[in-house]
Structure to design on (528 residues):
């Protein structure tokens, strides 16, 4: 790619490639030297420059790109400086013009001027080369970053998968599609994804274009395309905001339905066993937010999720077990109704608490922030043990030691009996 | 003997007269003058004309007005001044005398 320079001839802006500029500058220097010292010479030079601008096709937007061929063609039309008419000696020959020129290449000032000119030109070229290299490096980084993000977002948003980035990305990001199909009305998943794609992809495309421009030193501005893309981006952002705002308004009220069993007297050892097992259920998609996991049976349109288990010390000698089914809604009444439809089975028999590993929603129901909290309050000294094959980590237990199966309530905390 | 050089010198000698003659018909943009002179093979390159136009304008033989151009910078349209018309009349006479003198010399047997 040829380097180009912007120049002004007779008030007209031109873009000229570097080689053509060398020829043109040489020509103009000689013409200027030819007329500079003469009466009316400045006016003649201005007329000549105006004609050169016209030959180059000035006044265009974007500026005309002047090539070496165009400069040579212009010189053929205008004539070489020595062909210009000598008004003071119409009968003279070509050598007269050179003798009358004020420019003496052997004068000290001329030599010094040339030396300085060459120095600054060389210095300018070095600086220009360094800036170009920096621009190429930054441009390459922008392009690479843009393409990487673009590739990842396309995979995540449209294919619900990011094989090369799964190890470094948050699971909820990779599960965007599944997560949205659970959180939002299923009919609105694709419109939301398309709007989200526009909101995220347009800045990435802009980043890639910026990088390519920097690498190849492209100066063209596609203003109309830029305005159109920016307008689409703003419109998508607003639409997505309104969309999500309306959809997520369902989470504005939260209610719960509680079932509580008193443990009086509390057993010396509370055994915890799995009731309904998740492995007995069929599901074909999973999505997670933090440690909270959804299991989706798409054909049956049933959703399963993990309850949360908490064990506290009681204030008195007795204890209790509380299971709260929680849900959200546009009103308190709707939220309570949504909580009631959450399906969760558990029972306490003798000294054993049987807990299902999952809670579920009726087929076709939408997830409304539905959760199940299992809270157990036990007095000091009570032991908590898992029946063989059971682990407290199954229920999003706060103490995440999946290998520990026996605990004791001591000093207000549940401590592992192996500690 | 190089006839090309002699021809060029003779053309240069009559160039100022030819410019005034072209402009005597109506006001012209420099390129119009150039085109006519090129057609008559009085000049070959455009650069020849500009210093002459400046000189004739500074001598009061020509004046100009600016007009916007559809392409490029504004254009100067030249026309003869009253002085230029008188000067051209003088040159017409000189030219006729010159042609007659040359013909007389050339045709003398």
């Amino acid at each position: 790619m040829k380097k180009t320079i912007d120049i002004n001839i007779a008030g007209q802006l031109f873009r000229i490639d570097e080689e053509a500029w060398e020829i043109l500058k040489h020509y103009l220097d000689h013409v200027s030297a030819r007329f500079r010292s003469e009466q009316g010479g400045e006016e003649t030079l201005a007329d000549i420059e105006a004609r050169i601008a016209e030959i180059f096709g000035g006044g265009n937007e974007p500026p005309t790109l002047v090539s070496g061929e165009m400069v040579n063609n212009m010189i053929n039309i205008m004539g070489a400086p020595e062909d210009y008419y000598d008004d003071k000696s119409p009968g003279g020959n070509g050598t007269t013009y050179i003798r009358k020129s004020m420019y003496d290449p052997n004068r000290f000032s001329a030599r010094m001027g040339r030396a300085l000119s060459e120095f600054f030109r060389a210095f300018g070229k070095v600086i220009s080369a360094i800036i170009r290299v920096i621009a190429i490096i930054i441009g390459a980084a922008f392009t690479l970053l843009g393409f990487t993000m673009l590739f990842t977002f396309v995979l995540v948003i449209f294919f619900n998968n990011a094989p090369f980035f799964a190890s470094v990305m948050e699971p909820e990001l990779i599960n965007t599609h599944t997560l949205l199909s659970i959180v939002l009305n299923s009919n609105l998943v694709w419109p939301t994804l398309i709007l989200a794609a526009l909101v995220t992809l347009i800045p990435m495309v802009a980043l890639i274009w910026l990088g390519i421009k920097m690498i190849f030193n492209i100066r063209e501005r596609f203003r109309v395309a830029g305005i159109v893309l920016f307008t689409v981006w703003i419109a998508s952002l607003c639409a997505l905001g309104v969309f999500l705002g309306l959809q997520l308004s369902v989470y504005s009220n939260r209610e719960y339905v509680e079932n509580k069993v008193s443990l009086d007297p509390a057993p010396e050892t509370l055994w915890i066993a799995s009731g309904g097992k998740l492995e007995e259920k069929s599901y074909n998609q999973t999505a997670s937010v933090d440690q909270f996991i959804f299991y989706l049976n798409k054909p049956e349109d049933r959703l399963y999720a993990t309850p949360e288990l908490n064990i506290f010390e009681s204030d008195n000698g007795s204890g209790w077990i509380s299971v709260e089914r929680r849900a959200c809604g546009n009103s308190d009444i709707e939220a309570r109704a949504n909580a009631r439809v959450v399906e969760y089975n558990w029972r306490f028999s003798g000294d054993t608490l049987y807990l299902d590993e999952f809670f579920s929603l009726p087929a076709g129901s939408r997830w409304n922030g539905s959760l199940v909290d299992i809270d157990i309050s036990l007095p000091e000294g009570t032991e908590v043990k898992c029946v063989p094959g059971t682990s407290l980590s199954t229920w999003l237990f706060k103490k995440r030691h999946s290998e520990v199966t026996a605990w004791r309530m001591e000093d207000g905390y549940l401590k592992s009996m192996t500690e | 003997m190089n006839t090309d050089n002699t021809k060029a010198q003779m053309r240069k000698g009559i160039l100022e007269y030819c410019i005034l003659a072209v402009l005597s018909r109506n006001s012209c943009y420099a390129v119009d003058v150039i085109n006519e002179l090129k057609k008559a093979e009085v000049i070959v390159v455009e650069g020849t004309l500009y210093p002459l136009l400046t000189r004739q304008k500074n001598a009061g033989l020509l004046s100009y007005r600016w007009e916007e151009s559809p392409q490029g910078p504004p254009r100067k349209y030249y026309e003869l001044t009253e002085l230029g018309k008188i000067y051209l009349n003088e040159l017409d006479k000189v030219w006729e005398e010159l042609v007659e003198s040359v013909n007389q010399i050339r045709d003398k047997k």
Chain A is about 40% helix and 25% strand. Chain A touches chain B at residues 10-12, 31, 35, 38-41, 43-44, 47-48, 50-51, 53-54, 56-59, 76-81, 83-87, 90-91, 93 (CB under 8 Å). Confidence is low (pLDDT under 50) at residues 87-103 of chain A.
